[in-house]
């Protein structure tokens, strides 16, 4: 029997029992729509979270000064109390031991706050895996414009390096350039929304009473999570200029080469983990500290991004599995429909076999019938699931005052389509096999 004839008979079987077919299809629609909605939403939020983290420096390693932990000797003090004696000799020894214990307990406490200096930069430059090194000098300041003022966070950066490693993009104007002096770049939120008048390019603003020219305005953070507000500083300027925001009393000369943090970007072909370990070991050697007394902290966002992606993937897979249970319910509906069809078509099966239809032809007819039900349910489920996701994202975008972005998971759509067909075929396999094995004589006698 030709394939076209088989498909036509299978289609007629679906049309002959419209109500029963649609009730079966609804079960598939619910399952497929749930899976598509969950997978698409999960992929969308994973993309948004990853994009947000990368805008904060996804591949940039940051080094911060960090005060070592204070190690106490409570066990030694308890021991002294238990073994203390009244005689003067022992008392004198105890006082000496106490002094020694106190000095031991203060061993890991720094006399001064740890700092990042030019010496650390020179140490890092000897590491071949490093491509760029940027220094950050952070400070709070008062910004005045048009008779209004606000307190903002200023970040001083190296204009030679920062444009190469930052994920931020300029919406208007330009990035900082080598040789820049008394210039600033503003965040989009600060320039557009903070003051009654919008700050424009080449206008002058006052930072702690000093004049600075606006040479660039950053582009607005994109994506859904970008609308939650700007991250980090609102003003960027050459780091040497940040020192000028203070008087000589507030910023002594010795602190003019001290940095709040150091940002590092390694070469793409370099081994990221090995480079990270080399930075730590060489900085420890240069700063004369051990792993226990380490007075700096190395932050690698790459691990955080990977952990977030694993978490979202795991949660999406779990929810998709729960939603997929409804597909199991839908498959039992298809199986029930197919068994009923076999019983109704028993005499017709006998006639077809009597005029020369093969067992494989009968089996293909019922399998195609089941696959059609699954495919129709899958297509409608994909459309409904996608529409539901767009409605949810549209409402969220309105609530968060963010631009709406259409989300579609090609992987989820393809998987859902294949699953709907496979579910139909598996559910119809046993009924189709039973139909193909019917003997013509028994089928013709069936009432």
TrEMBL record:
Residues 72-109 are annotated as: Disordered. Residues 321-438 form the ABC3 transporter permease C-terminal domain. It is a multi-pass membrane protein. Its main location: membrane. It comes from the Archaea. The keyword Ribonucleoprotein does not apply. Coiled coil: none annotated. Pfam families: FtsX, MacB_PCD. GO terms for molecular function: transmembrane transporter activity. Keywords: Cell membrane, Membrane, Transmembrane, Transmembrane helix. It is found in: Cell membrane. The chain crosses the membrane at residues 21-40, 317-343, 364-396, 408-430. GO terms for cellular component: plasma membrane. InterPro entries: ABC3_permease_C (IPR003838), MacB_PCD (IPR025857), Macrolide_Exporter_MacB (IPR050250). Residues 73-88 have a biased composition (Acidic residues). Residues 21-281 form the MacB-like periplasmic core domain. Belongs to the ABC-4 integral membrane protein family. This is ABC transporter, permease protein.
